[in-house]
Records
---
Amino acid sequence: MKRIKSFDKNSKILYLIATPIGNLGEFSSRAIEVINGMDLIAAEDTRNTLDLLRKFNISKPTISLREHNEIEASHKLIEEINKGKKVAYMSDAGYPGISDPGYLLCKLCVENDIAVSVVSGGCAFINALTSSSIDTTHFYFHGFLSSKPVEAKNELEELKGKKETLIFYESPHRIEQTLKLLLEILGDRFISLQRELTKINEEKLYGKISEVLSVDMSSLKGEMVIIVSGNDSKEEFSDTEIVEKVNFFINKGMSKKDAIETVSEVFKIRKNHIKEIIKLKI
Ligand code: SAM
């Protein structure tokens, strides 16, 4: 158990600074103040960060911390903080640690009794979820699906039963493939596809996956977030209940095949799932 105060006089501290996801006006005065007080800025892409800092007339030494050197760079930053240096970490856009490096650094800080304080800012999925018109009470953030189709399919199979709103990050070159996969595995759910958030070309599509798939895919450019409504089937049924339902329709004179199809349609249960259960139980 640890209890770490962020702003005690002798506290060692790492700042994680959220950067704008598009509109530079969202870089807060607190972010600027904190960065101005730092000795060293660690950045996912030092070139992008230097460009950003230049726009706010800030000049600071930078060091790279990205996916490929995350372990070594995180340890190096812990050393620097322990030596007394004031250090902040910024990823390219949005919050560090959210589909970006930062988690490992935070973990090492806590292990080393270093406070971690976050300077708030833009986060693409929070922005998209808030304006999705889909239930925001409970949600599940998945980030990027695997780039390997079989793995992406397995990930979606696992998410399929979740009642929570689902959140995915996506890039324009994969959007069509991903929407088709969502349709195949999750069914034709209501989604909100949001792109270029906070930028001049910000656009939000609302509708069934099949409807969104009917738009010209080449018009869906830029960075995007997909918010998917959760599984709203009213009940989850036990194997015994599923068998009972199939038997009910068989007893009404339906063939086994038709009974399975009817149960699948009426109760929104996957046909293959019913078949597997029937194979085991009948
Ligand atoms: N750390 C970031 C955050 O807090 O949102 C996410 C970084 S992740 C590497 C980049 C992905 O975030 C993009 O592929 C896209 O899915 C989403 N994203 C970032 N900026 C966005 C924007 N302005 N509009 C829509 N999606 C955005």
---
Amino acid sequence: MDIAFATGNNGKITEAKKILECFKVHIIQKDIKLIEPRSDSLEKIAIEKAKQACEILKNPVIVEDSGLFIKSLNDFPGTYSHIIYDKISDSGILKLMQDVKNRSAIFMAVVAFASPKIEPITFNGEQKGTISFESKGSGGFGFDPIFIPGYETQTWAENPQLKAISSHRKIALEKFAEWAKDNI
Ligand code: IMP
């Protein structure tokens, strides 16, 4: 099955292709301009962007909205992760957390599927972890060099295999693929 994925983020596409290939779902990237609404809800943002993408493409499409929610920073950068990464990147987050002992954080993703025939439907995934004290590794993208999943000791950027086994994106996309088998 072919499915359009509206995003300009090549990192998301590389991961999504690997995650979905064993479900025989083939991703076709659509790098189209979507207006991101302001909201504290990834789900609301994903639904709104999926509606826009479907309107533009006139075809079924998925979008994914994700973010890093850091407990001691009151869930910052959260739904603003994209813009914050562009402005201060992972080194800026480490500066904000210089003297912070509680390093707990969660990566969350919401995949929204929209089609001209049905209302958007969403699938979510999350991965708990901690923020490292220094930036480590060169794999992946975004905040991967400062995110240590679960009780591991390496960041996702140091050990991309940890991310391939379990990530917020993998969980959300696998839920979508299971649903798509019977519904698309
Ligand atoms: P958006 O989903 O396009 O709004 O962007 C979410 C932002 O969160 C990305 O630009 C990254 O900075 C960050 N992000 C989302 N998922 C990941 C991930 O798997 N690894 C590292 N950073 C991520």
